[in-house]
Amino acid sequence: MSEMRSSFLKRGNLLLVAVVTLGIVIPGIARRFLGEAGYNTLGMVVFVLGYAGMIFVVWYGWIRPLDISGPDR
Q1: Where would you find the membrane-spanning parts of this chain (predicted)?
Q2: In a 3-state reduction of DSSP, which class is residue 45?
Q3: S-S: 47 plus which of 19, 31, 67, 70, CB 3.0-4.6 Å?
Q4: How far apart are CA 30 and CA 71, in angstroms?
């Protein structure tokens, strides 16, 4: 069990969890406060930009560098 825990709690995995959490939580809170203040459209724009930014950071930092190619013949 400790081997599984130590392999999950590596710096890269924790950073990925933090980026995903911040990419959803912070824009979501900002969207709610802006919506309650009467700026519903601005809140939606903030959420969409925050979520899209998080997707871009995850793609650029973790998915893009992967070598996803088939075997050489």
Answers
A1: 12-30, 42-63
A2: helix
A3: 31
A4: 46
In order along its 73 residues, the chain shows pLDDT tens digits of 555 556 767 888 888 888 888 999 999 999 999 999 999 999 999 999 999 999 999 899 888 888 888 787 7
pTM of the model: 0.72
Residue located via tokens 């919506």: 35
Instruction: For the chain, give every domain's residue range.
Output: 31-64
- Helix (H, G, I), strand (E, B), or coil: what is residue 65? coil
Cβ atoms of residues 42 and 34 within 8 Å: yes
Query: CA Rg, the chain, in Å?
Result: 17
